Amino acid sequence: MHPFTSLMLWGWLALTTLLLPLGYTLLICSASLFALLLILPDTRHRWRYVVWFMVPMGLGLWLVHSGWLAHWLNGTPLNQQRMPMATALWLKLLAIISSAQIWLEKVPTRQFVRALFSSRLPISFAYVLAGPLLIVEQLRQQLHTIRDAQLARGIPLDGNWHQRLKAIPALLLPLTSNAINELAIRGAALDMKAFRTNAHRTTLWAPPDSRLQQIIRYALLLLCFIQIGGYFWWLP
């Protein structure tokens, strides 16, 4: 499947989940997507990202919308009328993030970047979208090198949590400085490649696409607009 088709499917699923009211349908959808994340062998390791995000999010929503935070701070009487809304929001986020983790695992970064460069998008816009993905690995390597250098200098990057927290600037400042210094080099490399000469560029390893998948993408986009319009039309 083309990366844009799978991305459009995820977008339609996310939008459909956002429009669902609190009920058994939303509960089954959220639980099914998280269960699918756990069942698939290649996506199973990503459950930690979902849990690390959803558990603090759930605690925060409970504290704010259950009224306990205002009760502890100001002595305000408990008012849990907004708890159904917070529960629905938490379930929607669970479904969206779980499905996003599945998409991220199933679509390699290299394939998505090739799809961007071989698409009909303007090359400048495509590079804006693909640029962060292209430099992630380089930033990871630079961060590893900076970490080793700072450890050699005696900075406690492997100490207690408060020591690591205080040492974060020792990692971020050199990393940011290196990234800024490379801007001129990257700009010169793009000029050498005639970055703005042609309106559209392609790649030798463009992901296979078909007319059917293009029709599916446009149909899903149209369906999203219909769902949004129907939601606001029937909104009380």
TrEMBL record:
TM region(s), chain numbering: 12-40, 47-65, 85-104, 215-234
Keyword Transmembrane helix set for record: yes
Keywords: Membrane, Transmembrane, Transmembrane helix
Compartment annotation: Membrane
Membrane topology according to the record: Multi-pass membrane protein
Chief subcellular location: membrane
UniProt keyword Glycosyltransferase, yes or no: no
InterPro entries tied to this protein: ABC/ECF_trnsptr_transmembrane
Family (UniProt): Belongs to the CbiQ family.
Protein name: Energy-coupling factor transporter transmembrane protein EcfT
Organism field: Limnobaculum allomyrinae
